[in-house]
Predict the structure.
Amino acid sequence: MSGLPVIAVTSGEPAGIGPELCAALATRDWPARLVVLGDAELLAERAAATGRHVVYRPYKPDNAPMLGALEVLHLPLARAAQAGRLDVANAAYVLALLDRACDGCSAGEFAAMVTAPVQKSVINDAGIAFSGHTEYLAERTGTPQVVMMLAGEHGPAGDRSWLRVALASTHLPLQQVSDALTAASLERTLRILNADLRDKFAIDSPRILVAGLNPHAGESGHMGHEEIDVIEPLLERLRGEGMQLIGPLPADTLFVPKQLQRGDAVLAMYHDQGLPVLKYATFGGGVNITLGLPILRSSVDHGTALDLAGSGRADAGSLFAAVDCALAMTAARGVQA
């Protein structure tokens, strides 16, 4: 064995940009063995169609690294895929990629998994309940609660820093968010976030900026009581255990540079409170990370871009950043496969 970490990369929705983004990985010399999971014929066809000459070779656990080549763990499509055209027949194939990568990570075959985008709608149209990678991998690994965190570098050249935004709730309708933010759920989220900033990012004493739920963090109860009734008492109790928690802070001023300098991560109360800011600041280089899992998983921060599939114009920056993030997490944990 080479001693290099082995990273599984799922190629995602076959009608989307995932297969061609995976081909772009061959343009860089990675300090790892990258194993792309997908239909070998589809991967070769999509690379050729977008003008990339990629050397693919079949994956074997004892392969030696080969410069400029990508390993492929072949899993066959149910039906030939066309760029830009969703097909419910291939929904189970998409989940099979995730299952194989997840199981390989759990068994120690892979050090981490990186996921290209999937199309939730076509999986649901196939009659399979699926709300996203985060929830699916939690169920697959038997993890009772996980935390979605997006991260990326931002700021001017020469003075860039990391912005990390975790979510207290994920894919919920807005009217359900308040009821979902219980003291128990927030405590679990904060404990997972604090522990994984230590474990997966090697931050010895994480500082977490906590957003309020309501405008102006409730304005002393005049704009909502969740801060007074739930968030503030919990933060005070956890501070007593030594956790460095700042807030609850008004979300409209939390993301200014002076505030962000005070923390290592932000906890937003709901999906669209934190992620629009992060994606504006980092789009093209953002990464989605699932915290709380017993395995390491990172992903692109964008969708399948069906309108770009097969055109060769899709930007692979987020996938590159996701692989970089997976490698950083393996290094922080001292993991090798």
